[in-house]
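Proteins fold. Shown next:

***
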Amino acid sequence: MILISKRDFLRASAAAAALGVAGRARAQEMPAHERTLHEAARREGELTWYSGQYNAETSEAVGRAFTERYAGVRVNVVRSTSQVAFQRLSQDTRAGVAQCDVFSSTDFGHYSLLKRENRLLQYRPVNDEQLLPQLRRADPDGYYHTSFMGLYLMAHNTTKVSEADAPKKWTDVLDPRWRDQLAVGHPGFSGAIGIWAVQMRKMYGWDYFTRLERNRPQIGRSSMDPVTGLNAGERSVGIAVPSGTTLLSAQRGNPLRLIYPEEGVLATLSPSAIPRNAPHPNAAKLFMEFTASRYLSDTIRQTFGDPINPMVEPPPGSRAINDLKLIYPTQEEAERGVPEVRELWRDTFGV
């Protein structure tokens, strides 16, 4: 038996009362549509999020921020690269398992396929109207909704390469001087790298990758792996690295600097969706409302993620979206092109 003093009991009671007051205050701050969903979501108690958009640290922070705002609803974060998340979802479907409540990928093509196969729940978040105007109504039929804006560019280790000598264009990394100094992710695992490969092929043809292979780049899986290689000094230049992860690493003392390619920065405007067989549909709907609100953008900004809500300023060290030239394939190009570049990649790089 554990004994507790009267003083400790009173302290614990006071703390519980304070939490109760805070919880009621948060509930009162919620708009009516969120309060209704919150009550239903609390009865479900949890949701499982297949997160392929944010890194592990940010994904866990998003889960905590959601539960802090919507008490009594826990987020089970399953973090992986986008292609692995999609494979996991597909395996669930084949096995007749209902596990995923919210699916988030950087490969836009996943969503048109899932929609066509009638595997998504139709739900349009009310908070979608709070997003940046260009991000609203990702799907006119309301089956998926923008939850992520990733900017992918290049970076260099400043102790190995000076700013003056660093590449300025996407094509600069094809110069033989960068042999054995480059790092990049893999389109077979990373949705963002798949989108980047589609865009580079669109701009330069597959010869771009034939020439890149001659420079023997270090190939990881995630788009974030090159940042790790740069930090370790294993490579000098990272290709198609995420702005947020790179800035966070630099802020922690690593010798990294972003490179904004002259041709433009790759933008992945990526949605989330609720599978039709989601086991916790109300919690999933509430999570979708959260992703469009300023609370998600406030959270991801802490780890240098790019806000998708206009009420939240860009993170320190990043350029405003309006100041950037953005490049990206269309949704149709992404859906058709990503499977193609995956096969071409394996033929060219042998991995």
In short: Strands lie at 46-51, 74-79, 102-104, 145-157, 182-184, 218-219, 237-242, 256-259, 265-273, 326-327.
